[in-house]
Amino acid sequence: MRELTLEPLPPNVDYSQFSQRLEWAKKRIDALENHRIYNILKNSDESFKQVFCLLPLLLQYNHPLLPAYVENSPKGISHFTLTTIQQEYLLRILGSAEFSKVISDHSFFSSSAAFDGLYVMGSIGSITQTCFSDLDLWLCHSKTFSAQEQFLLQCKLDLIKQWAATLGVEVNFFLMNPQQFKSKTYHNDIGDEHNGSAQHFFLLDEFYRSAIRLAGKRILWLHIEKQGLNYQTLVEQAVENRELNAKDWIDFGDFSALSIGEFFGASLWQLYKGIRSPYKSVIKILLLESYAQTYPETDLISKRFKKLLLSPTGICYHFDPYQAMLEQVTIYLSRQNAFGRLSFLRHCFYIKANEGQTDPCRQKALKQLVNEWHWSDKEVHILNNRRHWKVKQVAAQQKKIVEQLLLSYRNLLQFARKFQIDPNIMPQDADFLMRQLYSAFEHAQGKVELINEKAISNLSEENITFINVGEGSSVKAGWYMLNHAPFAEYDSTKRYVLYQPNLIMSVAWAYFNGLITSTSQIHLVNQGVELPKLCRFINDLRLSFPLKAPKLCRHALDHPNEIRNLVVAINLTRDPTKHINTVTNADIEQLDLFNLSSSKEGVIGSISIIYRNMWNEIITRHFENTNALLKALKLISNKIYLSSAPPQSVKVFSYSERLNDELQQFVFNLVNRCITVKTGTIFQRYQPAVVRMAGKEWQLVFNQQQTLTEIIEDPIDKTNNIIPQEIYTFASEGFLQFFFEDNDNATFNVYVLDKDNKVECYYYCQGKKEDKIKTVSRLYAEGLKNKEQNAFGSFNFPQFYQLLHQDRQLFIVPFQSKQHRDFLKEQTNTRAC
């Protein structure tokens, strides 16, 4: 990339004078922004150039002939001036007469502009800008918009995004109010793009090191050198001395209030972003690690950039935010002697910068880096052909990514424990991120590990082979999957793609990761399962589950990870009915299905379960032998939460040689009844059924308060009638959950559900709930360090909820969520009246 050369301070400029220093800083910042815009537009296609250049115009002016017109929408950017490109576009679209009317209209250049400025930030203009890069835009405003204005503005921004999308450019807007930002007032819940309260100063660091002003006011912090005084004092003195008009600038403040409490939320945010942008997140979370090493004198890249920009000496530097991240993390890892991590960092950086790269200058810069790293041609060739990797390469790469992300997370947790920090992140944002991370990274029994769809678009295989190795073999017993047809000789310990203890887990992994398609040829090497049955099962699975899961919304994460889609397979791997003699229909009507065979094995030898839950996890369980059905029903009952919505789909398939339809209908009825009772659709109104299976009598009990099991055991002690029953609808197995309920005397009750859904109650508590939440979170994090199974961190952190009493009804919402804040605001307004 072309470096920016800045001349030294001219002799006629008195650097000790604030006003002269400020004017000189403007020239240098202008030079930097022009340099970056040149890098952005050079070798970009015409569609991208059009979007980039016209975005400020569409926010400056509302006209029916212009894209994204919304009547009465807020408009106008302070200090806006038309560029040549914008002027030519207006002339072409409006015609000369209308254009003359527009530019003579006072409102076009009105001082009462709705917006302070428009700035683009992120990878745009850096070495990592590619044809896939989107435009992240901060649209800043000091004005407070009414609800109607907010609605109209959001409509306009949505239309601008749609217009840009038609030209092949993804645009993301972030409405930023400087005063609210400085006071840490958050109006947006955390989501795909909004980081909520997860990070504040690290977001500001990214903005300051990469922001490019497209229109509007200049960024004050970039222009102000401390000169022995703290930033705020210097600004106030300059305003008082009339050397600075604060209304002409955008000011998000400095980093004097940066605390270690932000590292925890920022690390969670980068892990979350790693689900969608893994290579970028590896770089950024390592940057956080490097920042932690220099705390409290945190060596922020934005500070270094500003120091260089405002230095009175001449300078020649790239001012590339991504190259600066690479340089800083390289120094950090080298000092740690972590050369394996450094090598992988370079892989991530190269993939991030290379894919979709069409700019010759950036390609040349990457080649220069590769030469400095002493990579072989083979190493470069492998990375350049990543889109053609097979599943073993992709899975190995994903494993490395996850290991690196979690290792950084663990190191940042240790840093947090060292200083005994209280996280700055708000509880509802932490809950959201933790559940997302739990869904993506947490290992659980029977959970299918999904390959990140961002890693590669197509993993389909022409041939898939499942091989069963029995006990007593020289290799581990279980099921091995190959991504080719079986050969006469092969080494299963080296050539297999996947090992699983049972067939169901192997098939689910292959299907949900896209290896098995409708055209794949399936092969089977074993002595038990029949190939036609397996092919039927795979086809049933394909018809029952969409390969791509629905988008995971926040509402789903506010609820337990209940079953969304369920498939039950009968006698797929073990079928005792093939040993039954022929039975006529007349005989079937008079016989108990559980006692058709004199064998102790009965008629159900195996039950396989696959389900997708509300958090988009794929879970498999496989049961064999005499009590397979009972265990399966118990599992289903435990995963259907009280008063929750029933699953969207329930499919039961039988692969029995005999009694196929009868077993399918029988098990379907049992599963359906289990679900309808637990969800409250129907209630138990008759005596429990007693059935005989494999020489034993079993009592099947379905109850809204109890699970289905041999010996019914209530998972939650409900002897205390004071406990609000509504909290059980939020009970999530594996999580520690706290439910706060306010009392009239300024105290509050706390109901705690442990990981096994046992309940404890604490009444009339005093103090601040926020303080108790911070204490619980810190103690929980500290408790992980002695647990070997949590060597890389765990994401089943405590969850916090608030009980709201409104209109004689009880609602439960995440603590400090938007619903909670709106409720408190309404209560305050009611008391004021």
**Order of strands across the main sheet:** 21-20-19-22-23
Q: Main β-sheet: number of strands, strand sense, barrel status?
A: 5 strands, mixed
Mean pLDDT: 84
Our Rg estimate from Cα atoms comes to: 31 Å
Protein name: Adenylate cyclase
Pfam families: Adenyl_cycl_N, Adenylate_cycl
Domain Adenylate cyclase class-I N-terminal: 23-221
InterPro entries: Adenylate_cyclase_1, Adenylate_cyclase_1_N
Explain what you see:
The structure is a single chain. It contains 26 helices and 23 strands. Strands 21-20-19-22-23 form a 5-stranded mixed beta sheet, with helices on one face. The protein has a 4-stranded mixed beta sheet with strand order 4-3-2-5, with helices on both faces. α13 (about 340-355) packs antiparallel against α14. The protein has 5 domains: about 15-185 and about 195-255, no CATH class; about 260-455, no CATH class; about 465-550, no CATH class; about 550-715, no CATH class; about 725-830, no CATH class. It has about 850 residues and is an alpha+beta fold.
Features:
single chain, alpha+beta, 26 helices, five-stranded mixed β-sheet, four-stranded mixed β-sheet, 5 domains, 833 residues
Task: Furnish the topology, listing elements before pairings.
Elements: E1 4-6, H1 18-41, H2 46-60, H3 84-104, E2 117-121, E3 135-140, H4 147-166, E4 171-176, H5 178-182, H6 201-210, E5 212-216, E6 218-219, H7 220-223, H8 231-240, E7 249-250, H9 261-276, H10 278-293, H11 301-309, E8 315-317, H12 321-335, H13 339-354, H14 360-373, H15 377-384, H16 391-419, H17 427-441, E9 463-469, E10 478-482, H18 492-495, E11 498-500, H19 503-512, E12 521-525, H20 531-544, H21 554-557, E13 563-570, H22 585-590, E14 606-613, E15 618-624, H23 628-639, E16 649-654, H24 660-678, E17 689-693, E18 696-700, E19 737-742, E20 748-753, E21 759-765, H25 769-783, E22 799-806, E23 809-814, H26 818-832
Parallel strand pairs: 3-4, 6-7, 9-12, 13-16, 19-22
Antiparallel strand pairs: 1-8, 2-3, 2-5, 9-10, 10-11, 13-14, 14-15, 17-18, 19-20, 20-21, 22-23
InterPro entries: Adenylate_cyclase_1, Adenylate_cyclase_1_N
Organism: Bibersteinia trehalosi USDA-ARS-USMARC-188
GO molecular function, one term: adenylate cyclase activity
